[in-house]
Amino acid sequence: MTNASRVSRALRRPAAVVLPLSAALALTAVAWPAQGAPAHESDGPRVVSTATLPDIPLAAFSNRLLPGSVADDRGIDLGGIGSDLYPAERPGEFWTVTDRGPNGQIAVDKEKRRTFPVPGFDPAIVRIRAVGDRVEVLEAIPLTTASGRAVTGLPNQPGRDEAPYDYAAATPLAYDPNGLDTEGLVRDRDGSFWLADEYGPSLVHVSPRGRVLARYVPQGLGLTGADYPVVEALPSVYLKRKVNRGFEGLALLPDGDLVLALQSPLLNPDKASGEESRTTRLLRFSPREGGVTAEYAYRFDPVGTVEPGQTKTSELKISALVALGGDRLMVEERTDKAARLYEIRLRRGSDILGSAWDAAGTTPSLEQLADPAAAGVPVPAKRLVVDLGALDGVPGKIEGIAVEGSRTLVLLNDNDFGMTDGSGAFDADGRLVDSGVETELVRVRLDRPLR
């Protein structure tokens, strides 16, 4: 039986809420390529293996989870699962999460419109493993509301979020207060998931079966109409998040607390200040207390250090956090073309929660300070772990990072579902002109242990 026949046959089975896809989507299993002898200090970090996600039609994938959710995938395959990466229960397996789905931008009368070519797409949690040079999908869990309806990836609020349009940027789409732009993921000890969302920005608690249990948002957001509990528990200053730059990184600390990374500096007090700032924020959230317990200022390196030749500070972003044990955290600073990983410690003396820097009316704001440390802001010191941009074989736009053993990094990129911006993203028949960027799982062997 061919691989295509296996997929076709599997997709005719009765629908289920949680999808075991290994039989449907696995290709011929071969042994994982040997990683060779242990690295020596002189070897330096290096890529030791790469696996690629095969083409899986997005409509078939989505409708298997929630029948009838996607009427037409416009020729788009499953992608975007690299928004985060978290170790699963079995060695070599990982939990991942899609973002809000295929989306792009098209300029109409000099105004950029946000397009959603598959508006019925439902973000999903996906369990994967690498088998030889292929990424195998083992399980998929759709995100649903309290009543079991799909949580789409559409924007929530007019005036705050970008207006959604169809694939051609011609027809407006409806906003969805249930919509989530999921970017970060961890799995808690009880089997539930925590997700970071860019729209709110928000922290979302999800049951093991994908039902949204609670969404924690900034105070004063005023989100109404959602079919799940919405709790205003985060500092109100986060209402000043940049569009498409809300929470992206998420880590689970050994004590059970969560740490959220704001992808880019707040537009505080205005857009110009935020675009030029190199200071973003981390939030510590206690699930036991149901609220924020600490906040930290995080200082980016100059953009030209992260990506040589790049001059736009606004290209800097955090896309991943990894707990390393104790109060140690690994942070990814990146642009779309390069990334560097740093280690920091979350010391008690670095907490700015409840200080003047946590208030929206402080002048100058945290984001306006040219040198926060010189102004008395406690900024966690950082140590470079690895410059991913200097390694051959690492794809762009790495958003998922995990650690295997003591010195192996596992990286997963976001391929944006093969989408590009502009009117040429689709052909005359409304079918995707694929970018050719694949979803790749890459292992990097470091020259020294992380833990």
3D architecture notes:
The chain is built from five helices and 25 strands. With 451 residues, the chain is mostly beta strands. The chain has one domain. It has a five-stranded antiparallel β-sheet. It has a five-stranded mixed β-sheet with strand order 10-11-12-13-14, with no helix packed on it. Strands 2-25-24-23 form a four-stranded antiparallel β-sheet, with no helix packed on it. Strand 7 (124-131) and strand 8 (134-142) form a beta hairpin. The longest helix has 8 residues, at 3-10.
Based on the model shown, name its key terms:
disordered N terminus
**Roughly what is the average pLDDT, rounded to an integer?**
92
Give the total of beta strands: 25
Number of domains: 1
Helix content estimate: under 10%
| Rounded radius of gyration (Å) | 21 Å
Largest sheet: 5 strands, antiparallel
Task: Name the strands of the widest sheet in spatial order.
Answer: 1-8-7-4-3
Beta content comes to 25-35%
| Structural shape | globular
Instruction: Figure out the total of helices.
Output: 5
The first-to-last residue Cα distance is 45 Å
Q: Strand-and-helix sequence, N→C? A: HEHEHEEEEEEEEEEEEEEHEEHEEEEEEE
Structural class: mainly beta
Uncertain residue segments: 1-41
